[in-house]
């Protein structure tokens, strides 16, 4: 195993480190659109962001042993066609930026910062600028992996109460309480803020429906930084036009980019951001560190970090 | 001591509590502008936000024993004329909202949230929305009282390094390090973010000057939620027009409200907010709690909370 194909473009300093430490390997850097079947045949190892592997490519990947996915979401990977291929990903590298992004958007909402910024632009000084606090609020987080746990820890420092939901309700660090996700409807009415971080899997698709939102407080704020397909667009339209809750903050959508003219752009009670929660300059550095860590263990797959169970999909 | 004059308007539930628990007192609620010398003469106790006591009023306050200031800043109080009057204030009630406000504005800046909000308004989806992190940044905080310490604690949860400045450099909870303020110029160049929370006193007025800002990193972000007179407008103009640092976020000013047409409204590298960092609906509740706590101890001034040293001014 010595041929590494990468559709992830690396920085100069990273290439240098690869050359110095991994001289025994051959590297081929190719743009996603320009990968040929010859490249695929050549590769033992494939480094990718994960969206450029199609089921029909798998035939050509005759020698593929290991795929290093430089992101956390595997929704686009043809996992069912990849039996026998070892997969690792970069989960854990999102927790810092996604936590900051989520708290930034929540404070932006409760502190009315966008409005204050607009008032500055027209040189207006609001005399009675009273803003709200997140202190004391109850936050329910769907998904208790590394992002959820880190987010809960920082939210805790703000003086919130945090509940996490996962498959079986197992306890997770930083959460005051965890519940099995099938108890969601029984407890979601307690939350002031609901944050979804779940990945897209067979069991999370359309997991949230109108009923879920009707059970929430009408003052609740819902944030989605997980995957857009946790609910249908029809659900979003119903919730926002009926005003079942106070506000939604969506960073992910069923259709991305969200096209101009999409109905979502019409709502005042919706904040839209362009799937940006995890994107900071530190992203590639952290993903590369995991790749290097695993590449050092290429002769012992089991000792790698972030191994994916192909059957479960995470 | 039984006559309580208040220019602070209280909520119904608070008035009820006063009536139930403090029936032995007489209360007179008067608007600041409508207080007469007769009211002043009548009062043993004065409850005020602190900006409606003038030096020339002190003659009329013949019987005044205790002033409960329902805010933290005493800049407008005629302290030198108040010898023998016991003063308590509401310090400590600002820490939660000011911490949230500061972090909200910092994340708004580094995450470019205002810009993302503007893009939503014109249905534009930015494909490469890469934002910055506060994780790993070095934060220097001028002022290590209850606000500074609380802010440092929450910033710590975000993975920042925090240095606090106070008079003698005494250690304070939640700070990685504290330094005496006279070492400011020797260390301020280490900071990515500088936050001022100092009150206005003889020794803080114009404490920050052009030299201070020239010593900062040119990538530094400066936040002022303390008092505007920590620096002159000339200093602000010089720093922003010369670009000594990357950005300023100012919530307090030498002149408030900042009038339309003020030069500050012209800068792109300045965020202006209308002295709003401490204003949330929870404010009055927390100040009232301190007042009640102290009123229960009205026969033993020394046992009260938040006693002010008239000579020091805090």
Automatic annotation (TrEMBL), chains A, B:
Signal peptide start-end: none
Taxonomic path: Bacteria, Bacillati, Bacillota, Bacilli, Bacillales
Annotated protein name in UniProt: 2-hydroxyacid dehydrogenase
Record's keyword annotation contains NAD: yes
Keywords for this protein: NAD, Oxidoreductase
Residue ranges annotated for the D-isomer specific 2-hydroxyacid dehydrogenase NAD-binding domain, each copy included: 103-276
Family indicated by similarity: Belongs to the D-isomer specific 2-hydroxyacid dehydrogenase family.
Pfam families attached to this UniProt entry: 2-Hacid_dh, 2-Hacid_dh_C
Domain D-isomer specific 2-hydroxyacid dehydrogenase catalytic: 6-299
GO MF term set: NAD binding; oxidoreductase activity, acting on the CH-OH group of donors, NAD or NADP as acceptor
């Amino acid at each position: 195993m010595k041929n590494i194909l990468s559709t992830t473009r690396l920085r100069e300093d990273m290439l240098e480190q690869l050359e110095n430490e991994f001289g025994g390997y051959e590297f081929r850097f190719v743009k996603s659109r320009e990968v040929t079947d010859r490249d695929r045949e050549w590769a033992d190892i494939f480094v990718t962001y994960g969206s450029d592997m199609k089921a029909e490519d798998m035939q050509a990947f005759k020698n593929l042993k290991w795929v290093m996915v430089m992101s956390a979401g595997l929704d686009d990977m043809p996992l069912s066609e990849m039996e026998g291929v070892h997969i690792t990903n970069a989960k854990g590298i999102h927790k810092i930026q996604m936590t900051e992004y989520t708290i930034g958007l929540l404070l932006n909402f409760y502190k009315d910062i966008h409005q204050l910024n607009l008032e500055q632009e027209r040189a207006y000084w609001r005399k009675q600028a009273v803003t709200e606090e997140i202190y004391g609020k109850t936050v329910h987080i769907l998904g208790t992996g590394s992002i959820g746990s880190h987010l809960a820890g920082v939210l805790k420092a703000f003086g919130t109460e945090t509940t996490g939901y996962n498959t079986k309700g197992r306890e997770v660090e930083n959460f005051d309480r965890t519940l099995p996700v099938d108890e969601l409807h029984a407890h979601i009415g307690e939350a002031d803020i609901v944050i979804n971080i779940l990945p897209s899997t067979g069991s999370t698709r359309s997991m949230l429906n109108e009923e879920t939102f009707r059970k929430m407080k009408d003052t609740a704020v819902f944030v989605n930084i997980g995957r857009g397909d946790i609910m249908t667009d029809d659900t979003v339209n119903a919730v926002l036009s009926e005003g079942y809750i106070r506000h939604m903050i969506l960073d992910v959508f069923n259709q991305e980019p969200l096209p101009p003219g999409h109905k979502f752009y019409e709502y005042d009670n919706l904040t839209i951001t362009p799937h940006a929660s995890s994107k900071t300059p530190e992203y590639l550095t952290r993903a590369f560190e995991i790749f290097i860590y695993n590449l050092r263990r290429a002769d012992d797959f089991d000792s790698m970090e972030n191994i994916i169970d192909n059957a479960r999909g995470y």
